[in-house]
Specification:
The complex is a heterodimer of chains A (102) and B (175). Chain A is mainly alpha-helical and 102 residues long. Chain A has a domain of 65 residues: Helix Hairpins (Orthogonal Bundle), CATH 1.10.287. Chain A has three helices and no strands. In chain A, helix 1 runs antiparallel to helix 2. Chain B has a domain of 118 residues: Four Helix Bundle (Hemerythrin (Met), subunit A). Chain B starts with a helix and ends with a helix. The chains are: A mainly alpha (102), B mainly alpha (175). Chains A and B meet through helix 1, helix 2 and helix 3 of A and helix 1, helix 2, helix 3, helix 4 and helix 5 of B.
């Protein structure tokens, strides 16, 4: 009686992932897009935690730690790219960065 | 225990919706912190206290602070908010939102048609996680260390402002 159905937990993960996806699709500001990617990574980490909790094994949390390390590396490189784009184009519009010359 | 799970998941969903609809980026980041804290509560209820602590420390602490630092460096003016208002019109967001919501409905249907199962109430403590992390997953730990190193080097290389090239004779004249 005290246990949470796994569907509800997985639904939370799915809803958060979808919200992150909508955020990436509808925003034009690059910082908002990066934040939405963070939300999506976090939601997938939640799915791993749920799976680890289902079988009471530590593997889910280990995968969550790997996702965490990946997110930290990704956000540092992404923010450096945002700084560089802002210095060169003077805007945060992702549509402005559509030319490949440096 | 069940009630706390549902309340904190509702808080997480509401805060995430607020994140993706704000015009002011600092307000969005504050809602993002609330969302991460609610997810940390969910992790704790699901029996993963170590992951909950990491969520608070790394996500709500380090990553959000990093983004705030970058926003401070960019030194955005008031026009940024007006521009956001201009960019986020219903004509732009309604298409992707509807398509994503259809995908979500499919996901809900798939999850609801599979066999039901309850989550165990057992906690997986940090000792088990540490033994697993430095036992069978040691190769992954080393690889993620290399990934972080590559991230640091890449961020340093990309984030550097390019020096202006001035000829050395011109420099001397300026002095």
């Amino acid at each position: 009686m005290n246990s949470i159905p796994i569907e509800h937990a997985l639904l939370l993960s799915g809803i958060l992932f979808m919200l992150g996806l909508i955020g990436v699709l509808i925003r034009r500001n690059i910082i908002f897009m990066l934040v939405s990617v963070e939300i999506m990574l976090n939601a997938s980490g939640l799915a791993f935690i749920i799976a680890g909790s289902k079988w009471s094994q530590p593997d889910g949390q280990v995968m969550f730690i790997f996702i965490l390390a990946m997110a930290a590396a990704e956000v540092s490189v992404g923010l450096a790219l945002i700084l560089q784009i802002y210095y060169q184009l003077k805007t945060l519009d992702s549509d402005a960065a559509n030319k490949l010359n440096g | 225990m069940q009630l706390t799970f549902y309340i904190s998941s509702l808080i997480a969903i509401a805060a995430t919706i607020m994140v993706i609809t704000r015009y002011n980026i600092i307000h969005a980041l504050l809602y993002l912190v609330v969302s991460f804290l609610a997810l940390a509560v969910v992790f704790f209820i699901l029996g993963a206290p170590f992951a909950a602590a990491l969520e608070v420390i790394v996500y709500a602490g380090a990553i959000v602070v990093l983004i705030i630092f970058v926003i401070m460096m960019l030194n955005l003016k008031d026009e940024a908010k007006e521009q956001e208002k201009k960019w986020l019109t219903p004509g732009i967001w309604i298409g992707p939102a509807i398509l994503s919501i259809i995908l979500l409905v499919e996901l809900v249907y798939i999850i609801n048609t599979t066999a039901t199962a309850g989550l165990s109430n057992l906690q997986v403590d940090s000792k088990a996680v540490g033994l697993s992390l430095y036992g069978e997953y040691i190769l992954g730990v080393e690889l993620s260390g290399m990934l972080l190193m590559a991230g640091i080097v890449g961020a340093y290389h990309l984030g550097r402002k390019k020096k202006k090239v001035v000829h050395r004779f011109l420099e001397k004249i300026e002095e």
